[in-house]
Amino acid sequence: GESVGLHLPTLSVQEGDNSIINCAYSNSASDYFIWYKQESGKGPQFIIDIRSNMDKRQGQRVTVLLNKTVKHLSLQIAATQPGDSAVYFCAENMGGFKTIFGAGTRLFVKA
Amino acid sequence: DVKVTQSSRYLVKRTGEKVFLECVQDMDHENMFWYRQDPGLGLRLIYFSYDVKMKEKGDIPEGYSVSREKKERFSLILESASTNQTSMYLCASSHNAGAYEQYFGPGTRLTVT
Hints:
The complex is a heterodimer of chains A (about 110) and B (about 110). Chain A is built from no helices and ten strands. With about 110 residues, chain A is mainly β. In chain A, the strands form two sheets. In chain A, strands 1, 3, 4, 8, 9 and 10 form a six-stranded mixed beta sheet that branches. Chain A has a four-stranded antiparallel beta sheet with strand order 2-7-6-5, with no helix packed on it. Chain A is globular. Mean pLDDT of chain A is about 90; it is low at about 1-5. Helices cover about 0% and strands about 55% of the residues of chain B. In chain B, a hairpin with a 2-residue loop joins strand 5 (about 40-50) and strand 6. Chains A and B meet through strand 4 and strand 8 of A and strand 4, strand 5 and strand 10 of B.
């Protein structure tokens, strides 16, 4: 059979509901955490970031939560819309040039 | 509006061919990156450049080289393409002060047969 690693985790939500996308990061020394959105046929697009000295940061319809104790990051999207359908990547950076990307979560929004 | 462009959206090459992928950014960014994206593996860094003529290896540089002769242009070269280099290639750029916020091009889907 196919390797589990080839399948992206998938989240399916109803239009108008809130979405929560979770991510576990690997490096305790990471200083910045970033969420990117990748729509079909496009490159990833920066959504929001959070620095390691913060627990929460809000943007327009999005909130990122950081729990350093368990090395967990989440992206909350309020009132999810069809245009939010995409693959979402979390990423971590230790302040230098190298950013480590997660495998991504595919979000489907049902009308 | 910031823009990163890549020379081709789709490319089909034969095993052993030399392949050039070009990336241009119009934001006067110091840093430029090449990633490959494979299903379920996220983005993996091949090479990056923090200045003209400067380059650093990323996580998977084997089989690739890069060139940055001008600030706005970063080229990825596959010296002798192999089937395991079939992938989506993404170029990105960032300003020096905020290297973690990267702007990506649309990608080049390369198929090596």
